[in-house]
Amino acid sequence: MLIEFEKLTPAEQQQMFDAIPLIVILVAGADDDIDEVELAEAQRLADIRSFNNRGHIIAYYETIDEGLTDRIQQLLKELPDALEPRQNEVVARLSMLNSILTKLDLPFGYLYYKSFMSFSKHIAEAHGGFMRFMTIGPQEAEVVGLPMLAPVPRPSKVDFPDLP
After folding, report:
1. Which domain of life is it from (predicted)?
2. In terms of Cα–Cα distance, which of 37, 61, 24 is closest to 144?
3. Which DSSP helix (H) or strand (E) runs through 158?
4. What is the DSSP-derived secondary structure letter of residue 106?
5. Residue 53 confidence (pLDDT)
6. CB neighbours (10 Å) of residue 51?
7. Do the Cβ atoms of 38 and 123 come closer than 8 Å?
8. CA angle, corner 141, sides to 140 and 144, nearest 5?
9. What are phi and psi of 158, to 5 degrees?
10. Segment 96-118, tens digit of pLDDT
11. Residue 134 carries which DSSP code?
12. Which band of pLDDT confidence, cut at 50, 70 and 90, is reported for residue 128?
């Protein structure tokens, strides 16, 4: 168990571990086509963050990295096939993170929120675009900012000067 998850119930811990797979499903599936490029980018990014995340939440990414693609596939089997019901269910599940992030000790709620936001952006940009313009499609643009998550403010720079 991750030290920052000590105050969480087992169900809440699982919701945190499912956050990245659900973000991938939400963003990559916004155009109703989760393709291999997006899945490969999600796996690559989780792998990078498992050893290069400024030391803050490396253990989280180490935990999800190994089985990320399998967990995404497993969740896709549990979720509705149709785009709108699937997106609605994913949004509902991600919304539950709001109460969980507030339970985490400082600065972890902030770090996870920032990490989820940047992961979402990387997945949305996975296809590139024309000369890196228009890298996020209109469907992804609607969800890339994870509007179902309440922003978590950065803790004091005095107490936590090394945070991004």
Report:
1. Bacteria
2. 24
3. none
4. T
5. 61
6. 10
7. yes
8. 75
9. -70, -45
10. 999 999 999 999 999 999 999 99
11. S
12. low
